[in-house]
Amino acid sequence: DQTILWHHRLRHLIIQVIKDIQLNNMVSGLPKEWFSTIDFCEGCLLGKMSQHPFQFSTANAAIIVIVPSDIYGPFPTKSITGSQYFIFIDNYSHFTIITFLKPKDQAFQAFKNYIKSTENITQRSIQLLQPDGGCEYCSSAFKGLGQPQGICHHISTSHTQQNRVAQRKNGSLLNVA
After folding, report:
1. What is the DSSP-derived secondary structure letter of residue 104?
2. I want to staple 101 with a disulfide (CB 3.0 to 4.6 A). Which of 15, 55, 106, 151 is the partner?
3. 143 with 153: CB under 8 angstroms?
4. 92 and 60 in contact (C-beta within 8 Å)?
5. Rounded to the nearest 5°, which phi and psi values hold at 86?
């Protein structure tokens, strides 16, 4: 297929750009017929990936049972209220409650508020907090959470996809913003 051949030759340009090149006679030897669309290009897909594929588990916990967390920030510019960070997402539904923080040490209080609000809404208990390896999650307050609340605290290994849900959500939120 001429479309796929020229898509590869022109370093995976999108079809609209190839059509513009064709209309403006910018490449010699480019066929004059119109190009069709490309449904799937493995090279384009691999080129857009931020990391190599990871083996996904087919087992999903119910809503709010597992809560990954990754504090994002500091933002280059503070918000109107002086916040520089945000956190929290549910692993199963990907329902997100964004909590803005001024300093990172407000993370524990924000998590306690998150527990109250989500447990009131869903009538379920959080069983596992899975944060990244940030020092704000290593405080004695977070470590002591297991006794009264019954929440397991499992810190993800740095630079892995163990906390990919929170990291992807942070990236999506920044793209939208």
Report:
1. G
2. 106
3. yes
4. yes
5. -150, 160
Is 175 a residue whose pLDDT tops 60?
yes
Average pLDDT over residues 41-58: 67
**Cβ atoms 64, 126 nearer than 8 A:** yes
Sequence-ordered alpha helix ranges (H) in 24-145: 42-48, 107-122, 140-143
Write the pLDDT tens digit of every residue in 106-130: 888 888 888 888 778 778 777 877 7
d(CA 167, CA 139): 21
Q: Which residue has the tokens 């001024």?
A: 102
Which residue's structure tokens are 């017929």?
A: 33
Contacts 24+ apart (CB under 8 A), 133-136: 133/157, 133/158, 134/70, 134/71, 134/104, 136/71, 136/104, 136/105, 136/107, 136/108
pLDDT at 58 over 50: no
